[in-house]
Every structure is written in C-alpha cells, then in structure tokens.
Amino acid sequence: MSDTTPRPFSEPSPLSRALSAVAVVLYAVIAILPLIWIGATAFKSQADAIAYPPKIFFSPTLEGFVDLFTVQTHQSHEFIAKMAPPTTWYEKIARDRDMVIAGPSRVVERFLNSLIIGFGSTILATFLGTLAAYGFSRFRVPLADDLLFFILSTRMMPPIAVAVPIYMMYRWLGLYDTRIGMILLYTAVNVSLAVWLLKGFIDEIPREYEEAALVDGYTRLQAFRKVVLPQAVTGIAATAIFCLIFSWNEYAFDLLLTSSNAQTMPPFIPFIIGEGGQNWPAVAAGTTLFLLPIVIFTIALRKHLLRGITFGAVRK
Amino acid sequence: MTVTNPARSLAEAAARRGSARFAARAGLSDRAVAWLFILPTMLLLLAINIFPLIWAIRLSFTSLMANLPTPARFVGLDNYVDILTDEDIWANFRVTAHFVFWTIALQILIGLGLALLINQKFRGHSFWTTIILLPMMLSPAVVGNFWTLLFQPQIGPFNYVIGFFTGVAPSSFSMIGSVVLAPWTIVLVNTWMWTPYVMLICLAGLRSIPDYIYEAAEVDRASPLRQFWSITLPMVLPFLMLAVLFQAIQSFVMFDMVNLLTSGGPGSTTETVSITLKRAAFEKWQTGYASALAVILFVTIFGAANVYVRALNWVKQQ
Amino acid sequence: MRDLSDIEHAGSARWFRRGPWENAAMAVIGFGILMMTQPFSLDLYTYSFATILSGTLGFVVVSHFPQ
Fold first, then answer.
1. C29 domain-assigned
2. 3-state SS, residue B62
3. For chain B (length 318 residues), average pLDDT per consecutive 10?
4. DSSP, res A227
C-alpha cells in the first residue's frame, strides 16, 4: 500500500540506515573476534599462542592439529638424529620440535562418540517427535494441553538436577558410561523440542489433503506416510538439525554420566593438555573442528532459527 | 505397521470414494493411531524424566551418600531444612540472582538495540544478523573453555585490548582470578553468548508490527520517540517477555559455561546453584542432600516454566 | 426461579475463572523466586521454597478452571 507514495512512511532515512549499519557491523565484528581468535590459534605454534603481546600475524603451522590427533614423547635431539628420517608430514612436524609420535590420541574416539550419540539421538528424537506431533496435531487427545506442557517442561529442567537421579538409575541399569544410555538421554531431552516444533509445522499443512486421501481409500497410516510426511519434510529436516546441534553441544550430562567409554568431545576438549600446561593450539584445533559443523548448520538453518528457539511459537 | 495393502491401485481407491469411514476402519482406528503415535514419546519421557524425578524426591528424604556402602537412612525434611537455613547456599542463590539479573538487563539493552538497528534494513543486514547469531549456537562448554585463554592476565588478548584502550597494565588484573571481577566475567560471557537470542526474538516482534500503524502515527505527527514508546515497545513487549523468561530460566540453571570458565571460583564468588549442586552430588557425594537441592530447583523451574508457557501462548495469539 | 439459578451459576463461574487465579499463582511464584534470591533476610529465603511450591501447585490446580 506504500507503493503509491514516493517514500513510504515507515522507510528509514538513508542516514539512519548508514548509522545502523555501522553500529551493527561494529558489534558483529567484536562479537565474532573471539571465534576468529580460536580459529587463528589453531594454526599457531605453542610459542605464538602464548606470546606477549598477543600475536595477530604469525606463520601458520599444523602443529596444533598434529598434537591434537597424536600422542607424542619428548626425545633428545641426538636420539631423533639417529632415527630413520620421517616418512610423513606430521611426523616431520613433530620431529622438528624434538617430539616422536607414539600413536594416535583418543580424540578420534571422542569425535566418533559425538557423531554416534549425536546422530543416534537425533534420528530417534525426530522419529518419535514426528509421530507424537502428528498425534497431537490431528487427533483429540485427552488432556492434550497438559501433556504438551509436561513435554515442554522436561526440556526446561536443569541437566545438573536431572543428572543426580539419572546417575543412580544408570548405575543400577548398567547404562552408566554407555553410548546407548547417552542416546536415550539426549533423545528424551530432544524429543520435547521435536514435538513442539513439528506440531507447529504439521499444523500448517492443510487437513484437506489428508481428508482427500482418506476419501480416496487411504488408511490413516498411509495418509500420514504418503501425504503428510512429504509435506513436512522441510520441518523435519530443520527439527533434526536442531536436535543434532543440541546433542553435539551437550556437556553437563556427558561430563557426569560418562567416563572413558562414551565420553563425547565437549568434556574432553578442556583436558587436552600438552607438556607443562594447556596446549592451546591443540585445544584450539579441537575446538575449531568441533565448532565448524555447527557454524555451517547455523547458516543452513537461519530461516528456521526463530522457530527453533521459541518452540515453534514465533514462525516468521 | 499398516494392516491394509499400501499398493492399492487408484482405480480401486476411486471405487471406494465417498466411504472414508469404511476406509479408515480397514486400517487402524484414529484413536488407536493417536495413541500409537503419542505413547512411545510419553513412555520415554516417563522413564527418563518422571521416574528419576520420583526417585530424586525419595532420595531427598534420606542421608544417602552414593559413594559409600552404608544404607540410606530416612531423615525426613532435614536436608531441606539444612539447605534452606544455610547462609552459604543462600549466598549461592544470590550469586545466581546477580548473574541472572545483569545478564538479562544487558541482553535486553543490547539485544533490543541491535534488533531496532537491524530493522532499519540496511544493505547486507541479513548477512550480519547471521554472523551475530553464531555465538548462541555454539557449545557453551567448548567456547567457555576457550575464553579462559582470552582472559589470561599476561597473554590473553582480552586483557591486552582492555589495556590498549584504557592504559591499565594487562597483567594487573585477572578477569577469572579476581574476587571482584569474576562475577562480572561470567555475566560478560553469558551476555556475549545469548544476546543474539533476545535480538532474534525482538526482531520477529518488530517485523510483526504492520506498517500502517506507523503511517497513521506519522499522519498524526507523532515524534519518533513517541512512536517508539506508544507503538514499538508495546508491540514488541510480548516477544521480549518470551525471550527474557526463557533466558532467565536458562541463566538460573546455567552450568556449562560457568563450570569451565571459573568452576565457581575464586572462593565461591561465582558459585551459582548448579555449581553448588554439582559439588554436592559429584564431589562431596552427598546424594540425599543434593537430591533435595535438585528438587528445589525442579519445583522452581517448573513454576517458572508455567509462566513461560503462558507467555508463549500470549505471543502465539498475537 | 430460572433467572435466579442462572445468576447463581454466573456467580460461581466468575469465581472459578482461570485468568485472575492464574495471575495470582504466577505472582506467588514470582514472589517466591524473589524471596529466594533477595540479599536481605535469611528468613525470607528459608520460606521461599514453600512459597514457590504452593504457587506452583496452585497454578497446576487453577489452570484447570474453565476459561
């Protein structure tokens, strides 16, 4: 309706636009600096990482990544000189600092655990969530509001408080420090978000489609599978990514309910220690590899973020 | 799971057209489908949430220590009385309140401010919005851990930058080690992390205001400030409420970032209740006592969650 | 006769409407949380949990009143 006027009423002036742009960009740059610093530290040598004053320009090295993935022992210069020459680039990086690679570190296991537990719980939570959301969206469920509130309230519960009884229960059931135990736990936390989000998505699919299918002789389950699911696929994908991000980032449960077997990356990263204190380039390398997928997912998700963080209440 | 043949031909389906009830009866009844769909979720939540909760309530009346073989003794309300008359625990609640209050205050100020600026829709605003959103999506634990390097007094870039702009020697203050600064450090990092959350929801609120309201206001020659107070703010308020309530609940039980950044120290100056709870449960192994504290947190959060859901519905109706 | 019962019915319906009761329960919860985190009186802190608990239980009950 504002097309008819030369400049629409609510359109901001060019000056105020420019000033806002400057302020927002300034904030964005400051806010992103710590993340850039993490990425930069990953490519620093240990000396550069803890240099004073902090180094902005440095010659990049892969030391951090080599340290992250390997266990090394310190050897004398003479000992190394007598050894056969290094055959791989990462051995060479280690030898240059008088270190000998003794074997792979546990980081790969941790990464694998993060992946298995993350994807396992995501698939389960999205599957259960889709079914339950459809149930709540399309049928008259007795006490539906109470059930939905109960589902949401489980998400709000502080992990630390839940962990106390879960710890007792898992010890009793033999689920302590197992991947399956963590998958079940993360599924339970994620399913609440999945139900709320997907209910919003499924509510938006017109009922007429299914009704037409039912008239055409489909059963309920067929209508669900062949009519509703294809329509809800974007919503399901967005929900799955949200679940994956949560499982990927989760720390408290994993810290308290796993030890050496099912531990994922977040509780592990702070304990990447080199000789004489924290090996910051290795920590930064691990952190960078760990955060990178989430950065990509965030960009992929940006249209659905709002929905995700408000449990589907705000849709635009 | 289906009882009927899924590969029913279209011709056959057309023959049945008009008798949907019959078709539905050929499969599962709607009621059966509803329960079949909802039950697995409810059972999982019962097993992983309700059962442990009931267990925690039971444990909270005992003196159980999970690392000792001695059997639990029933102590009635002793654990609750201990917690609720303990000056130290009260102090931890106050630390938590300080953390929540200032985080929320800063988040509203910066978050709403940014949302208003971004709503000017300058070129490239969606790109910069995505950039600003990043901290919120990343693992608070992993990022919190890295902040300890940034805050190192001697080598940390944070101290260096502050020193550069204020002239204070970078090694003369420690954001994590100082009793005065540490409570503000966790506020700072939490604000950095969660301001985008408030911003994003406020932005949605701003975009929900139809243009014609402002047009009418301009016809009435309302000043920009008046427009802000009488149009923008009231329209954004439900959204702001929603964001603030959720963030208040989250900050109240924040564990990841605080545990890795300060783990409650120095002393207990940043010991929020979740840190207290973790220390009681997994360091002192006072399981009964910790369960009582957990139940107190459960009830508090459950109460707050009720208020939050009211706000959700309020926004939904808008 | 009919009119009278109608008025009576309307009266009880007004008593058991959700809105004001829910607001009251939410106020009790909020006040309890303030009591829990205020820095002035240990006694207020001691009774904060009882306040929050009663507010929460009250909310669960009154939220099932008719609209």
1. yes
2. strand
3. 40 43 57 89 91 90 84 87 92 94 95 92 88 90 89 87 86 86 94 94 89 84 85 89 90 91 87 92 91 93 88 78
4. I
Whether A68 and A93 have beta carbons less than 8 Å apart is answered as no
The class of domain B85-317 in CATH terms is: mainly alpha
- Answer yes or no: are the C-beta atoms of A94 and A66 closer than 8 Å: yes
Coil/strand/helix, residue A70: strand
Which is higher by pLDDT, B112 or C8? Answer: B112
Testing the interface with A: which of B3, B19, B38, B199 to mutate, by most A Cβ within 10 A? B38
Q: What are phi and psi of B181, to 5 degrees?
A: -85, -30
Domain segments of chain B as ranges: 10-59, 85-317
- Residue (of B150, B95, B133, B122) closest to B264 by Cα position: B95
Distance from C-alpha of B219 to C-alpha of B22, rounded to nearest angstrom: 61
CATH number 3.30.110.40 given to A108-271: no
Q: Across the interface, which of B56, B132, B302 has its CB nearest the CB of A28?
A: B132
Residues 6 or more apart whose CB falls under 8 angstroms from that of B42 comprise A132, A147
**Residue B183 to residue B259: CA distance in whole angstroms:** 13
Residues 33-62, chain C, touching B (beta carbon < 8 A)? 33, 36-39, 42, 45-49, 52-53, 55-56, 59-60
pTM: 0.87
Structural domain boundaries in chain A: 108-271
Structurally, chain C folds into a number of domains equal to 1
Decide if C56 is inside a domain: yes
Range of the structural domain that residue C50 is part of: 17-67
ipTM score of the complex? 0.87
Do you find a cis peptide bond into A53, omega within 30 degrees of 0? yes
At residue B248's C-alpha, the angle toward residues A310 and A143, to 5°, is 50
